[in-house]
What we know:
Layout: E1 3-8, H1 15-27, E2 30-36, H2 47-58, E3 64-69, H3 73-79, E4 84-88, H4 92-108, E5 113-117, H5 128-136, H6 147-160
Parallel strand pairs: 1-2, 1-4, 2-3, 4-5
The structure holds coenzyme A.
The site of coenzyme A has 23 residues, from strand 1, helix 1, helix 4 and helix 5.
Amino acid sequence: MKIAxxxxxxxxxxxxxxxxxxRAVKLFDKVIITIAKNPSxxxxxxxxxxxSLIEACVRKYTNVEVDSFDxxxxxxxxxxxxxxxxxxxxxxxxxxxxxxMALMNRxxxxxxxxxxxxxxxxYTYLNxxxxxxxxxxxxxxSGFVPKPVLQALQRKRKRTS
Length: 161
Ligand code: COA
């Protein structure tokens, strides 16, 4: 069974992430989309909120599991018996950081391979910070995020305004 991990902050999950996931589910028997507990990022959504938003978006897949982790990614992958890490490459600007991470992860565990997938070009300029900022300022993000995320962003805005 070929198991892949798709890690990220997912604060919140966007259509760009879902585009990558859609491609990954066709390549692997199981994809575990997992939220990294990154203490250096101050998230807009709690881990529980991010998790339930992802769950709401991936119900249609039978081979996707949602999880979270802290510590080393390769160690987490080993506990899940995963042999691949999925990362999205949106533009050349992603490459240097992603190459560094992929090579470091390979150094840490040579049995785990990073697989890069390119999202549809309409998502190449998208990231979660931009979505959060536009939503916070009352802009329309309906084209960038799935419906449950759009509603969650609207609820957050109402609460803070
Ligand atoms: N569509 C839209 N946005 C995307 C995207 C896509 N397909 N792919 C990435 N992004 C955006 C994210 O929204 C995020 O945006 P933001 O910074 O504005 O919030 C940004 O790109 C970063 O991507 P993300 O996937 O969230 O990665 P990350 O940099 O937060 O986390 C980990 C990377 C979790 C894989 C890495 O930190 C990790 O492995 N941590 C565990 C500790 C470890 O093992 N460290 C050693 C690694 S060598």
